[in-house]
Amino acid sequence: MEAQRAFCAENKRLLENRYGRSPKALVRAFGCAQNMDDGEKIKGMLAEMGCTFTESVEEADIALYNTCAIRENAEQKVFGILGQATHQKELRRDMLIALCGCMAQQKEVSDKLRRSFPGVDLVFGPHALYKLPQLLHETLLHAVPGQRKRVYDTEDIDGVIAEGIPTLREDKVRAGLPIMYGCNNFCTYCVVPLVRGRERSRRPEDVLQEARSLVEAGYKEITLLGQNVNSYGKNGEEGMDFPELLEAVANIPGDFWVRFMTSHPRDCTRKLIDTMARNPKICNSLHLPVQSGNDRVLKAMNRHYTREQYLEIVRYAKEKIPGLHFTSDIIVGFPGETREEFEETLSLIREVGYQSLFTFIFSPRPGTRAAQMDDPVPAAEKSKWFQELLAVQKECGMKLYDRMTGQTVKILCEGYGKEKGILSDQPVPAGKALLMGRTEEGMVIDFFGDPRLIGQFVPVTVIKSANFALAGEIR
Ligand code: 5AD
Ligand code: SF4
To answer: Per the confidence metrics, is the pTM higher than 0.90?
Structure first.
C-alpha cells in the first residue's frame, strides 16, 4: 500500500497536467454489497489522486465500471453502458475508460473487450483492485496518442488481502465492512469462485479496528460482508470463528446495529443463532439463501444441505429469536428442474414465510458445471414459474408487513423518503420532512419528522402497511 500511495501522488500530478484541473471521475458499481464496498474503495483511491466525482458520463474525464458477472443480463447491461462511454470518448479523446470487477476477470469478457471495445484503456479483476493507482499510472504513461497501449491485469490468482485502502463512504449512517473475500463452495451455477478466488479472512484485529473507527465516526449500522461469512476463520489462523467475530463487533461500546451477509445454510450453526439471540445489537434479520426447496436440485447445485436440514435451522432460529425475519435467494429453472421440483420451492417459501426474496431465473455462466447440464425446460415456461413464485412470495411477505400495523418499533432513520411512497398522498406538516428508515428486520418505513433525525434511532408506531411499504408516526 506504501507503493500505491506513491503512485497516487504521481498520478495526481499527471492527471492535473492532462486535464488542466482536478479531474472528474464517474464510478459505477453493479451487483452485490461486496462490489459496492469495492466501489467505495475505488473512490477513496481516486480521491487521493485529486479526483472529484460526477454521476454523468458526459462530464467524466475518467469513467470506471465495477462490474458483476453473476448473470448474463448484468453483463449485457454493462456492454450497453460501455458503448455509451466509448461514444463520449469519440467526442473527447483524452477521456479514460476502465472496467474492473468480476466481469473483467472472465477470459471471454477481456477477449471481447480487446476485440470490440478499443476505447477501453484499463481492465483489471477483483484481485488487482488495491493496485488501481499503479495500473492507472501505467495507463497514463501509455495514454498518449500514437503510443497508446491498453493495460490489462486479470491474472488468475487466489487473491490477497490488502489492508489500508482508502475508502470514500457516501452514506454516513450505514457502512459495509468486508470480513472475508472469495468463495470455496463451487455451487455448480456460480461464477463467483472462478472470478473472486479462494476464501481468505481478514485478521480479527483489523476487522475490529475498522468497526471501532466506524462507530467512533458515528455510523449506526455496520454490515459484515463476505460471499460466505460463516466460513470466516475456517482455516484456524484467525483464532476466531464467525459467531465470535460477530459478538466481538457487537460488544464494541456504542449505540449501533450489526447485520451480516451472506450466510451459507450449510455452515449456519446453532452457535451463530445463539449469538444473535443474546446480542440485542445484532439485527433480527437473517439472509439465508436456499436456492431451491428440492433435494435433487440442491444436490445438483452442490449446496451440501437438504430441504429438511435447512428447515431445521429455520425452526431453531425462529424458536430462539422470536420475531426473526428471513430473506433468501432463489433460482428458478436450474437445468433439469421439473415442475414438481419447482413446486417444492413454492411450498418451502410458504413454510418459512420470508420477508423478501431475491429471485433469479437460471443463467448459464461460462466455466461453471451447470452451464454444461441439459436444460430442457423452455425459457417461456421458466418465466411462468418465475411469475408464480413472485405471486406466492407476495402473498407470504405481505402478511409480515400487515402484522406490523399498530406496533411501535425502534427504527434507524436513514434519510429522506421517496416522493412516490406510501405517504405521498399526504401533505408534509410544517417544519417536517418526509423521512425514511428501516426496522431491524429490514422493513422500510416512511414517516414525517425533523431532518435532524437522519442518522438516529427513532421510536415509530406503524400506522399503515401497503404493498411492502410501511408508514409510521414518531412516538
Ligand atoms: N443464474 C441465476 N442466479 C444465480 N445466482 C448465482 N449464480 C446464478 C446463475 N448462474 C444467484 C444465487 C445467488 C445470488 C447472489 O445470485 O441465488 O445466491
Ligand atoms: Fe456462489 Fe455458492 Fe459461493 Fe455463494 S456460496 S458465492 S452461490 S459459489
So the answer is: yes
